[in-house]
Amino acid sequence: MSWLRRRRQVRTDIEQLGSVSVARAVAAFLAAGLFVLSAIGLVLALALRQAAISEAIRDARSLTTIELKQVVAPVLVDDALVPGPAYDALDKAVREMVLGDRIVRVKIWDASGRILYSDEASLVGRRFPLGSEEQALFKGGGAYAEVSDLSNAENLDEKQYGRLLQVYQSAKTRTGQPLMFETYQPYQTIIDASHRTWLTSLPVLLGGLVLLYLVQAPLAYRMARRLKRSQDEREALLFASLAASDRERTTIAADLHDGVVQGLSGASYSLSAAADRARDSDPDTARVMAETARDLRRWMRELRS
Fold first, then answer.
1. CA-CA distances (angstroms) from residue 22 to 18, 32, 166, 224, 225?
2. CA distance linking residue 116 with residue 79, whole number of Å
3. Rounded-to-integer distance, Cα 140 and Cα 170, Å
4. Rounded distance, CA 148 to CA 153, Å?
5. What are phi and psi of 8, to 5 degrees?
6. Mean pLDDT over all residues of the chain?
7. What share of the chain in percent tops pLDDT 90?
8. Pick from 129, 124, 127, 163: which is nearest to 146 by CA?
């Protein structure tokens, strides 16, 4: 790289360093941080909402379990599954203590898929195919919930309630006959409960993200200031390097002018004079000396440039 190219490169580096702004660097950092934290906040908010819905569904399962154990189980005898006084006692307990705003329908199934009891009398005695989850309850017990499909034949009478959550709970009569206790709960109740949970937790989440964002501002400013000081030091070093290069070039140029160039100039004049004197007596030697003098003058011009 020539001296002029190197000088231009150094100047370019200095101009680039001088264009760095602390405010601009902090603004860029905060903008990037805002974008990242917004994306994280959105993901966490959606995850929190899904967790709130799951929590509301768990509460719905818990409600079904409580109603089964505290209200239905005490009157769930074998005779309650056929018309008679025991059946009437079961029906009274369900209608007075189970049905309401939270639970709009109750069914009790046997393992063959037959409805042994329902608050909707037209469903009693009808059979419907059981899914794998329902069959698993008869074998292993437990509970699970799903959103009702109102197009299924067993749910045609529930269309009046709109979207529902069906909760299935394994049950037994006092003699150990396996049954399945099912409740239908308005899904809007689940949504409302999840919204309450979500809105309660969301301010804490957003507040934490905002606090984290605000803490980043002074840290970003401090880092940018430190970077700017480092760049200022580098700029000073580059200026010093450029100045030293200028001084070195000036010194070399002076040395060449006062030493080598002056010597070559004197030699070229001496050769030219000698060539003039020898032109008549020795033309060949005079020609060589004249050419050499011209070469010396050409080299002097190159050294000066």
1. 11, 15, 60, 6, 6
2. 11
3. 9
4. 11
5. -65, -40
6. 78
7. 14
8. 163
Cα 268 from chain centroid? 78
Query: pLDDT category, 56, cuts 50, 70, 90?
Result: confident
Please, what is the Cα angle at 27 between 25 and 29, to 5 degrees?
A: 70
Q: Among 152, 158, 157, which residue's Cα sits nearest to residue 134?
A: 152
- Rounded to the nearest 10 degrees, what angle do helices 283-304 and 262-278 cross at? 160
β-strands 143-147, 115-118 pairing: unpaired
Report whether pLDDT(11) > 50.
yes
Q: Which ranges of 256-282 does DSSP label H, i.e. alpha helix?
A: 262-278
Answer yes or no: is pLDDT of 278 > 50.
Answer: yes
Mean pLDDT of 254-274: 68
> What residue type is assigned to position 43 of the chain?
V
Q: Is the dihedral of CA 152, 156, 157, 160 positive or negative?
A: positive
Using alpha carbons, list the distances in angstroms from residue 15 to 231, 260, 286.
Answer: 11, 38, 57
Ranges assigned E (strand) in the chain? 105-109, 115-118, 143-147, 164-172, 178-186
Which pLDDT band holds residue 1 (cuts at 50, 70, 90)? very low
CA gap 151, 208 in Å, rounded: 45
Q: Read off the pTM.
A: 0.56
Mean pLDDT of 81-87: 89
| Side chain identity at residue 257, one-letter code | H
